[in-house]
Amino acid sequence: MKRVFLRWAGWVGCALLFASSPTAAEGYFKCETANGIEYADAPCEDGASRRDLPDQYEREQRRAEQRRFAVCFRPSRVFSPGDAVSDLAELCGQPRRVRRLTTPDGVEERWEYRQGQGSLFVFVEKGAITAIRD
Predict the structure, then answer these.
(1) How far apart are CA 134 and CA 75, in angstroms?
(2) Phi, psi angles (nearest 5°) of residue 24
(3) For the chain, N or C: smaller number of CB within 10 Å?
(4) Check whether domain 74-134 has CATH 3.30.1450.10, yes or no
(5) Exposed e or buried b for every residue in 40-66, given b needs 16+ CB within 10 A?
(6) Are 47 and 29 in contact (CB under 8 A)?
(7) Cα(133)–Cα(57) distance, rounded to whole angstroms?
């Protein structure tokens, strides 16, 4: 009997502990302290406002932004010679620098994008990608 009571009391104690802990849906508080930024499930001393955790739409938007960054970091994985350079510019933004070279065939452009510590180059002729060096 004593063993059953202890087992039952243990389960009830765990259930109460779990029920009293905050759930993820309640959000959190971002508190600035002398030690830096801390996150808490209770209001901060200075009365910070509650921030809700991101919902499914926000998580999908964040993932899309991460995929866009990955494409812009290595465009040769998605773009190939013959693709429109306007698609690259729409996705990755304007290049850091554009150099125009006059060749016997016309004008060739070299678009330079920042890539980590270095740069990547996209060669463009008549609005189409001719080569990518990343």
Answers:
(1) 8
(2) -65, -25
(3) N
(4) yes
(5) eeeeeeeeeeeeeeeeeeeeeeeeeee
(6) no
(7) 35
The whole-angstrom separation of Cα 4 and Cα 76 is 66
Per DSSP, the residues of 1-17 read: -HHHHHHHHHHHHHHHH
Rounded to two decimals, what is the model's pTM? 0.51
Which structure tokens are listed for 98? 């554009």
Record the tokens describing residue 115, joined without a space.
């890539």
Contact of 129 with 122, CB cutoff 8 Å: yes
The pLDDT of residue 22: 47
Tens of pLDDT, residue by residue over 65-89, are: 877 777 777 888 888 899 999 988 8
Q: What does the pLDDT look like over 27-54, one tens digit per residue?
A: 677 777 777 777 777 777 776 666 666 6
Q: Quick one: tokens of 70?
A: 């990955």
CB 120 within 8 A of CB 79: no
Q: So where are the chain's domains?
A: 74-134
Residue 45 CB-half CA count within 13 A:
5
Neighbours of 5 (CB within 10 A): 9
Amino acid at position 39, single letter? Y
